[in-house]
Amino acid sequence: MKYRLLELDVPSDNPFQHDALERKPLVEFLASLIGRLEGPFVLALDSPWGTGKTTIIRMLQAKLVMDQFQCVYFNAWKVDYVTDPLVALVSALDDIHLTDDGAESVFRGHLKTAKKITSAVAKRAVVAGVKAATLGILDIEEDLEKMAADAVGEVAGNLVDVFQKEKQALEKFRVEVEKAIKQLKAAGKKETLVFFIDELDRCRPTFAIEMLERIKHLFDVLNIVFVLSVDKSQLEASTAAVYGEKINAPEYLRRFIDIEYALPLARGKKFTEALFARFNLDEIFAKRTHEQLRYDRQHFIEFFSLLADATHLSLRARERCLTRLVVAMEQTPENTFLFPPLVALLVVLRMAKPDLFGALRSGIASAADVMVYLNKLPSGPEIVADRSGVILEIGLLLADENQERKQRVLTDLKKTAEDEKTKQVSGRATELLSMTRYFQNFHSDGPRLGYLLDKIDLTSGLKS
């Protein structure tokens, strides 16, 4: 049984084969946009953490490669232990291999020079503690090791000469990178290099900001388009961590980013269905062969998708919810009545509103408290007023193990329903009471909330 999903497979020859979220139109739009850009250019794809940015990036890269673009993928978070981001960026360029031998040879020659400059710059930064935007010295025709060592001494000497050498170093690096990129067209590729930088918002604040500064000051060359995958709010927090809370972080970041594109958040039950298949939950629910349980899979998917959308759970959070469901289902006999709508609600509450989930566990919160919470969500009033809300409310009520509270609420409902009958109206109380017949088909008192809470909280296996 799967408890953790591997990264979604994005075939290079069919990027949208497993596109459960129907991202194809978005990716094709972004590919078209990038195809019209003339570097240097920095495009930021903005979306909260855990919303599927990496998958979009991988689909976009595959699409661009099919369109004959040379792409480089760089996961910044995996290398944020490096002292100087420049080293990691140039190392990523080293992964490019052109199929034309002549173009490859010229490309390697210019890249070799750029790598030598990178080494000198990195050593200078480490030894002298120079700011990221103020780079080292070099004369590439001389011994770089000696130059880097000499530069340290010069910091305390003629700073004007050092500054002039730094300017030469910057210009030489940019020229060499630009000449290397020109070989893409000679190799039959589009002339623009697309450089993807993923997970930048998860890096150490200093590393993330230094990365942006390196891109701005060293890779501001023709025919390079950077595509940053970021949660802009986290990047702004990194900026404040480095430069202080008083800095205007959004304005500061505009120095580095030419245009931002806010990725639309994924919604709907197609993603839930895809997760079911990837977690092998379809097999588990297929074993629930009792006639009255045959719609359990369908009901769970519908209610989970509805509630996950309403609470704005990220894609990653939804995966974690389904991991919890997998474990819970493995502890449950195949034909045990679980009432999927209520299970879906509890799984979502455990992730989106843990304090309310805890209050249910302790017996403090009631069905009314949960419905109040749902009603406060942006789309909550529609859910509560709909048949879905009726099902959830009566399920919580009948599952309540506080018998005194449960009977008091049921008594009040019956009185209200009688009044509605007298007035010849079909109100909320009538709807709630009519729904009790659904539960009586399975269990005389409905599902037990404590049992379900234990399942969702993964503690039932610990009890004797």
UniProtKB/TrEMBL annotation:
The yes or no answer to whether the keyword Transferase is present is no
Q: Name one Pfam family in it.
A: KAP_NTPase
SUPFAM superfamilies in UniProt: P-loop containing nucleoside triphosphate hydrolases
Q: Where is the signal peptide?
A: none
Coiled-coil blocks: 163-190
Domain named KAP NTPase: which ranges?
A: 25-322
Q: Please indicate if the UniProt record lists ATP-binding as a keyword.
A: no
Highest taxon of the lineage: Bacteria
What keyword terms does UniProt attach to this protein? Coiled coil
- Know the name of this protein? KAP NTPase domain-containing protein
State the organism of origin: Rhodoferax saidenbachensis
Taxonomy of the source species: Bacteria, Pseudomonadati, Pseudomonadota, Betaproteobacteria, Burkholderiales
